[in-house]
Specification:
- The chain is α/β, with parallel strands linked by helices and 393 residues long.
- The chain has 2 domains: 195 residues, Rossmann fold (3-Layer(aba) Sandwich), CATH 3.40.50; 174 residues, Rossmann fold (3-Layer(aba) Sandwich).
- The protein is 39% helix and 18% strand.
- It is built from 16 helices and 13 strands.
- The strands form 2 sheets. It has a 7-stranded parallel β-sheet with strand order 3-2-1-4-5-6-7, with helices on both faces.
- The chain is globular and about 65 Å long.
- The two termini are 22 Å apart.
């Protein structure tokens, strides 16, 4: 049983901050909302969230903690959204400049220069959550590594990392190692990601598939590093094995992808928009197989901690993925196959690996029975509470 921390400062508010849009289901929003929803059940400290609502005027799911959002009407266009985010950053500056010392937990994905200035001027205890790094994100972005565009977030990331009072929390050991080496950080810990408790709690009750065709799924946000553009190669390889297949592709922004443009009129493909988090199980319950082709080169410094892979695990779906660092559990527990870049790029090699995968698919399903359950967001909240309270005394 885990320790429940009670401290003299237990009534001091925790202010948690993110500049990313939390109004629809994608990784940063899920992590932000689910972590602090679960945290409330563990701690007597009040939690106050500061976040941006961009696509919609409310969070993608219920927030049980107090939320002070900035609503950005997406019809205003990119320039106006950026201007309004500067107002958000300015409001944070005055809030934390005038507040008495407190605990500030920031999810570093996008950066606020005015918030940084306030933290440098006051003695707040700061926690920085990192699941990506500016150098790698700019290098692998769709726009390429434009020096002027990428220099600013890299500079701000470095300055945030150098805050004297900061504890760095990363989601994977290799990210922790990279942060320590690159920035000389002395206080960095790893807290791995979790997934929806509703998926984890039904882990032992997942029914066996009775589908006649193979239903193959991908759920994501179509980032430059999740490998969704390799779907065409996977589709052709599976068709060459003689299998009947139906691909289920879900996530916000899918209609803007090359994948949608290539296959939207193909009867073997079904496309879904953003799926509410509480209804994920309906999407996953359709699937016999799931995949995610994370970038292997990027994982060398930014180890993968892919939420969808944890969700596939929770739903006992055989997995096809890559040998990106962080995906080893798939082979360790026998949940599926990991592919090298060479196998993904060579049509004949990929067909051979898919034949092997299909021959062993029933064994992958059986292997789930002996495997542990994946982490839930409650597990993440308990680990986060331990780090916050031991460093706030």
């Amino acid at each position: 049983m885990r320790t429940q921390f009670k401290t003299k400062s237990r009534n001091v508010e925790i202010h948690t901050v993110t500049f990313v849009d939390i109004s629809y289901s994608w990784g940063p929003a899920i992590h932000f909302v689910e972590l602090w929803n679960e945290y409330l059940g563990l701690s007597e400290r009040p939690v106050v969230g500061h976040a941006v609502l961009e696509k919609h005027d409310r969070p993608y799911t219920e927030t049980r903690f107090a939320l002070k959002p900035l609503r950005l009407n997406f019809h205003y266009g990119r320039v106006m959204r950026r201007i309004r985010k500067l107002f958000f950053d300015s409001a944070l500056f005055f809030h934390f400049l005038l507040s008495p010392p407190t605990t500030v937990y920031i999810r570093l994905s996008k950066f606020g220069i005015f918030l940084l200035l306030a933290l440098m001027m006051r003695k707040h205890k700061v926690f920085l959550e990192v699941n990506g790094l500016a150098l790698e994100d700019s290098t692998h972005s769709r726009t390429g590594n434009r020096r002027v565009v990428s220099a600013y977030p890299k500079l701000l990331e470095r300055l945030y990392m150098k805050l004297p009072s900061a504890t760095i929390i990363t989601v994977a050991p290799q990210i922790t190692a990279t942060v320590v080496e690159r920035y000389g950080v002395s206080d960095a810990v790893t807290i791995k990601n979790g997934c929806d408790r509703r998926l984890v709690d039904t882990f032992s009750n997942k029914r066996k598939s009775s589908h006649k065709e193979l239903n193959i799924g991908f759920l994501g946000t179509f980032t430059p590093w999740d490998g969704h553009e390799r779907t065409s190669d996977l589709y052709k390889a599976l068709k060459r094995t003689g299998s009947g297949v139906v691909f289920h592709i879900g996530g916000p922004g899918v209609e803007a992808t090359d994948l949608y443009r290539e296959f939207h009129d193909n009867l073997d493909f079904l496309f879904y928009g953003a799926i509410p988090y509480k209804y994920l199980w309906r999407f996953y319950d359709r699937l016999d197989i799931a995949y995610a082709f994370d970038r292997i080169d990027r994982s060398k410094s930014v180890e993968q901690s892919t939420l969808k892979l944890l969700e596939y695990w929770a739903c006992k779906i055989p997995i096809i993925s890559t040998r990106a660092l962080g995906n080893e559990f798939i082979e360790e527990y026998g949940f599926g196959v990991l592919l090298s870049d060479e196998e993904l790029s060579d049509e004949e090699l990929l067909i051979q690996r898919m034949l092997e995968f299909l021959q062993n698919i029933e064994q992958y399903r059986r292997n789930y029975e002996a495997a542990p359950r994946p982490r839930s967001w409650r597990d993440v909240a308990e680990d986060t509470q331990r780090v916050i309270e031991t460093r706030s005394r």
